[in-house]
Amino acid sequence: MDHIVSNLIRIKEEINSKNSKIDQGISTKIIAVSKTFPENKIYPLIEYGHIDFGENKVQEAMDKWTKIKEKFENLNLHMIGKLQTNKVKHAVKIFDYIHSVDSIKLAKKIFEEQNKIKKNIKLFLQINIGDESQKSGVELDNLEKLYFFCKNELRLDVVGLMCIPPNDEKTEKYFSEMFEIKKRLGFKELSMGMSNDYLLAIKYGSTYLRIGSKIFGVRN
Ligand SMILES: *Cc1c(COP(=O)(O)O)cnc(C)c1O
């Protein structure tokens, strides 16, 4: 079997064995983050039946996925990287989910562009959970304002919250905060956990793990 497929299967088995001990009600999906990897690394996963994939750049996603999505219609492509407003027009065409909504300006642009093509993209609000000046994501203090604007003014389909925690030893604290905020605002989905912390993320109810290198290998 293709080694990329066996990597995915191993991770799934690991997650299932943990999930049974924790919360039966939560289903955890894996987004295979294929950024920097070419189509021939992606096809084996699609043929195996995997449907959720992630990219962090609009141009790269268009180059790779326009063709793939013509052949396979049931795939979900997730935008997990920072999204500039001038790229939204293209992003709404190729992506089914956007995980990085972090401002009213961006939300308005998504609303405008997806209406033009009559598409309804599922959105996550990205929280700057570690309050890092260099990172994107909405600050906690502005989260509810952004959420209620998206929901009530624009009627966008906001399904959950996303974070990329700081690279420090407090990951568990950030994940637990995310879980509390998700519960308080009544979201269904939580997008958190990457190759090196996905087991911790499912402990705190993550429903979308974004896993790249542990599936595809190291990126250069
Ligand atoms: C690249 C990336 C991932 C996957 O990272 P790995 O450590 O390779 O699993 C997850 N989320 C975001 C936002 C990314 O940019």
Structural write-up:
There is one protein chain. The protein is of the alpha/beta class and 220 residues long. An eight-stranded parallel sheet has the order 7-6-5-4-3-2-1-8.
Helix content: 40-55%
Low-pLDDT windows of residues: none
Give the strand line-up of the largest sheet: 7-6-5-4-3-2-1-8
Main sheet overview: 8 strands, parallel
CATH class group: Alpha Beta
Q: How far is the first residue's CA from the last residue's CA?
A: 24 Å
Q: Return the string of H and E elements.
A: HEHEHEHEHEHEHEHEH
CATH architecture: Alpha-Beta Barrel
Mean pLDDT: 95
Overall SS class: alpha/beta
Give the overall silhouette: globular
Note the topology.
Elements: H1 3-19, E1 29-33, H2 39-48, E2 52-55, H3 58-71, E3 76-79, H4 88-94, E4 97-101, H5 104-116, E5 122-127, H6 140-153, E6 157-163, H7 171-185, E7 189-191, H8 198-203, E8 208-211, H9 213-216
Parallel strand pairs: 1-2, 1-8, 2-3, 3-4, 4-5, 5-6, 6-7
Helix pairs in contact: 3-4, 4-5
Bound molecules: pyridoxal-5'-phosphate (PLP).
Index terms:
single chain; alpha/beta; TIM Barrel; eight-stranded parallel β-sheet; 9 helices; binds pyridoxal-5'-phosphate
Quick synopsis:
This protein is α/β, with parallel strands linked by helices and 220 residues long. The chain contains nine helices and eight strands.
